[in-house]
Specification:
alpha/beta, four-stranded antiparallel sheet, 21% strand
Length: 233
């Protein structure tokens, strides 16, 4: 199993840090926090950090010093962490300066936790540390690695191990009709109650949780997964 990515939160407002840490933890990342820039010195000096998120309570001088000493574009070198800085709205000078000093990304406050997590995921992918196995459906995005369903409405659901196995089976066999026997053999139920008709209930629950019509019942034959057609933006 690949090592978990490590995200450091430096001087991120407590109300945001709690939600963000929980969000990242559920997606398989380790989160470490430093409430003050001086606490970050010890944290970052120890190494092993992939991404650093710096809150907007940090002064310009403190933020510049962290970037200069520890970022992958500064003293941290090629193995150093990438930095995301949170800036106050309309603070264009700070934003441009942060980017010029080597910040990988800048996001304005107030921020959306899911957007920030997505930006972190993008940076991790660039570093060769894939953030997850993302599957995009009509009304939700599924991260198979963390078994999370992120609905367009903003709500989230957790898939059970059996549901993840079932979804992986469908993804591995697109447009192929799978019989109940195929499903029982490749993605067995999570308990001993794996009789033929229980497959119907498992499919219904999975469809409901994913809010999808991509899993079709083929009467008298089984079930088929038809990947959604990408939307034209």
């Amino acid at each position: 199993m690949a090592a978990r990515s490590v995200i450091a939160l430096v001087s991120v407002a407590e109300v945001v840090a709690g939600d963000l840490a929980d969000h990242l933890d559920r997606r398989g990342h380790d989160v470490r926090q430093a409430r003050q820039p001086w606490e970050a010195e010890t944290l970052l000096s120890a190494g092993g950090i992939d991404i650093v998120v710096v809150g907007d309570d940090v002064t310009q001088a403190e933020g510049r010093e962290l970037l200069r000493r520890y970022s992958s574009q500064g003293g941290g070198g090629e193995g150093g962490p990438d930095f995301i800085l949170i800036c106050r709205p309309r603070d264009l000078v700070d934003k441009v300066l942060a980017l010029e000093l080597g910040a990988a990304d800048v996001i304005e406050s107030p921020l959306n936790v899911r957007e920030l997590a997505a930006r972190i995921g993008g940076l991790l992918t660039r570093r060769g540390r894939a953030a997850g196995e993302l599957i995009v459906l009509e009304n939700a995005t599924v991260d198979l690695r963390s078994a999370m369903v992120m609905h367009r409405s903003g709500t989230e659901d957790q898939l059970s191990p059996g549901q993840v196995a079932l979804l992986r089976l469908f993804l591995a066999c697109p447009r192929k009709v799978l019989t109940r026997d195929d499903i029982i053999a490749a993605a067995p139920a999570e308990n001993a109650d794996a009789f033929d008709r229980s497959i119907d209930s498992r499919i219904v629950r999975l469809r409901r949780k994913l809010d999808t019509e991509t899993i079709t019942t083929i009467r008298g034959a089984g079930y088929r997964f038809d990947p959604p057609v990408p939307r034209n933006e």
